[in-house]
Amino acid sequence: MIIKAEPRTILNFLHTYFDVMRDLFQYQTTDGLITKEVYDMLIQKHGHVMNIRLREFRVIRSMGSDYEMRDVYYRLMEFLLFEFKPLLPETIEKYKSSIGDLYLKIRKYENQRSRYSSGKDQEPFASGEGICGFGREKHF
Question: Which of 39, 73, 112, 117 has its CA 20 to 30 A from that of 83?
């Protein structure tokens, strides 16, 4: 059976109802399938149109009186949920600090370099220390 919808329409549906898709995925992952009770509760919460779209876009299929996500949607959700992890605030704060430190070192280097090129100072990092605090490499 061919799906009679534009790919963009299906992607828009997945985007709009991502939380529903995630719930279906989690129920199936936990229980091995989506029970009729869970599916009915979901349809009651989101309306009959949800039932129509899930079937029209072939997101789910009947398994006796229960349901399961079709493999292509299940694998897509698995990929999205397990391959992409949101950054935690602690991680972002660590990056902020590291980026700030690097920015200050670059500014210091640029200031020393401009002073050197104008003849006001010695060569930047003449002591052998590089821009990031490491020794300068000698190129032969």
Answer: 39
